[in-house]
Specification:
47% of the residues lie in helices and 15% in strands. It has 3 domains: 231 residues, Rossmann fold (3-Layer(aba) Sandwich), CATH 3.40.50; 112 residues, Orthogonal Bundle (Isoleucyl-tRNA Synthetase, Domain 1); 59 residues, no CATH class. By secondary structure, the chain is an alpha/beta fold. The longest helix has 25 residues. The N and C termini lie far apart (73 Å). The strands form 5 sheets. It has a 5-stranded parallel β-sheet with strand order 5-4-3-10-11, sandwiched between helices. Its EC number is 6.1.1.16. InterPro entries: Cys-tRNA-ligase, Cys-tRNA-synt_Ia_DALR, Cys-tRNA/MSH_ligase, Rossmann-like_a/b/a_fold, tRNA-synt_1_cat_dom, tRNAsynth_Ia_anticodon-bd. This is Cysteine--tRNA ligase. Mitochondrial cysteine-specific aminoacyl-tRNA synthetase that catalyzes the ATP-dependent ligation of cysteine to tRNA(Cys).
Length: 505
């Protein structure tokens, strides 16, 4: 009866818990806050050192595109904060290189736990590199920082926030932290005792060793760390008792992030450890609830890239708000590809105009107003919880308006409008903030002469075509058309503009 009354009292306290607005530099951005469940101003302690921690992978298998979408969306947000808002992000990520799943994979492959972890961590970084996702500034592996983790556990035990149970494992006592359930509501029944634990929600800080399993020595017995304690100990080791931003997928909000916050607040004697939690939405295959290895419905990153380019996948992630779920399907990837192509074609058209291939009558007043209005829309969208889909909408409106001018049949006086170059630069620069580069020929490093060869071929065809026009030789013109059509099959678009010709991918 006493325990039941204690549970009810704790729940009432949790319901009254509020988020503490930090002091420091107001970025002007509002982000969704899972504690208050609404948008709050993003205030960082120091704009020249913004602490950012991301939960890294458990390296027991190949990463799938659900992981890719999470890390890519977080990469986009970091790029926005760095390149658009001029904040100095210092990012840290952990690597869980010992875990039940890694041990199981070790037994399955009949190789050591260390070799399993090394193999899949190497593959993880290769996958991120293939997607143009920036590597964190600091990477901390669990097995290389065991003393830091054990010291964190020892502090919790000394402060009576954790206990050793009859199964010889060490557990965090959720009743010792009155704000448990800060990130996600917890039912009363969840907090009732079960078996050897004081509460069903108590979680392992140190797992007692099992026969024939890897273990480490500690003052409370041999074993290895629990999942949640790793991130708390390693993040605290770098950033201390306060972190500006902690990020991960929405599936980590509970119990992982909830448990991190609880044990870290207790260890540091603070009411709030992380000021802002950022959670990305699920990625799911068409017709599936979400993508998960346990559901056996995953698609590896390398397999995805055989059919979808990294640029197209990034565009798809930018088209979806970072907190929203995202469906991976051929139709959605086609839509993303079409949008990316429209921006590339827009840039090529603007370049052809500035190079004199296209003549058009440009209304500079309209273009200049569009530059101002679009810049304002971009700022409003990015300060509103990083609303990248709204940015793309504004850019697409630019493309539609400018294309209508450049493709008009009205003659001009031959002067080049600087405003077209300016608005083209705005589109290119904004997309580059997201990691999307439309101002670069997308060719392999081994084909570094490709552009030069294409320029030579284009010039030769242009001269032959002019010869055919001057002599009114249909056979020559047909041969030029055949070259154009065959190049199109290879993904190279050749356009004729009177006496001049241009090409683009």
């Amino acid at each position: 009866m006493f325990l039941k009354r204690k549970c009810i009292t704790s729940i009432l306290k949790r319901r009254n818990h509020g988020w503490i607005k930090p002091e420091g530099y107001d970025t002007g951005i509002k982000v969704f806050n899972c504690v208050t469940r609404d948008k709050q101003p993003l205030i960082v302690k120091n704009k020249n050192l913004v602490s950012w921690y991301t939960c890294g992978p458990t390296v027991y298998d190949s990463a799938h595109i659900g992981h890719a979408s999470c890390f890519l969306k977080l990469d986009v947000i970091q790029r926005i904060l760095k390149e658009y808002f001029n904040l100095n992000i210092v990012s840290v990520m952990n690597i869980t290189d010992v875990d039940d799943k890694i041990i199981a994979k070790s037994n399955e492959l009949k190789i050591s736990v260390q070799d399993v972890a090394k193999q899949f961590e190497k593959e993880f970084w290769q996958d991120l590199d293939s997607l143009n996702i920036n590597k964190p500034d600091c990477v901390l592996r669990v097995t290389e920082n065991m003393e830091i983790i054990k010291e964190f556990i020892r502090k919790l035990m000394d402060d009576q926030k954790a206990y050793k149970a009859t199964d010889n494992s060490v557990y965090f006592d959720v009743h010792a932290y009155e704000s448990y359930g800060k990130l996600q509501k917890i039912s009363e029944e969840s907090l009732e005792p079960v078996h050897f634990k004081k509460s069903n929600m108590d979680f392992a800080l140190w797992k007692a060793s099992k026969p024939n399993e890897i273990f480490w020595e500690s003052s409370w017995g041999t074993g290895r760390p629990g999942w949640h304690i790793e991130c708390s100990a390693l993040a605290s080791h770098v950033f201390g008792s306060e972190i500006d931003i902690h990020a991960g997928g929405i599936d980590l909000r509970f119990p992982h992030h909830e448990n991190e916050e609880a044990q870290s607040c207790c260890a540091h004697g603070k009411t709030q450890w992380v000021n802002y939690w950022l959670h990305t939405g699920h990625l799911h295959l068409k017709g599936c609830e979400k993508m998960s290895k346990s559901l056996k419905n995953t698609l590896s990153i390398s397999s995805m890239l055989q059919n979808t380019s990294a640029q197209v996948f990034r565009m798809a992630c930018v088209m979806s708000h970072y907190r929203s779920s995202m469906e991976f399907s051929p139709e959605f990837m086609t839509t993303a590809n079409n949008l990316l192509t429209s921006y590339i074609n827009f840039f090529d058209t603007c370049r052809n105009y500035s190079d004199g291939y296209i003549k058009a009558n440009i209304n500079n007043d309209v273009v200049n107003k569009l530059i101002t209005d679009t810049s304002d829309k971009i700022y409003q969208a990015l300060t509103d919880d990083f609303n990248t889909p709204l940015v793309l909408k504004a850019l697409s409106e630019v493309v539609t308006t400018i294309n209508s001018m450049l493709h008009s049949t009205q003659s001009d006086d031959g002067a080049r409008s600087v405003s077209i170059i300016t608005i083209s630069n705005l589109v290119v620069k904004t997309l580059s903030i997201f990691g999307i580069n439309i101002n670069k020929r997308d060719v392999n490093a081994s084909e570094n002469n490709f552009i030069e060869v294409m320029d030579i071929l284009n010039s030769f065809r242009q001269e032959i075509r002019q010869l055919g026009i001057s002599k009114r030789d249909q056979d020559i013109l047909k041969l030029c058309d055949n070259v154009r059509d065959n190049l199109k099959k290879c993904g190279i678009i050749v356009k004729d503009h009177g006496k001049l010709s241009s090409w683009s991918l």
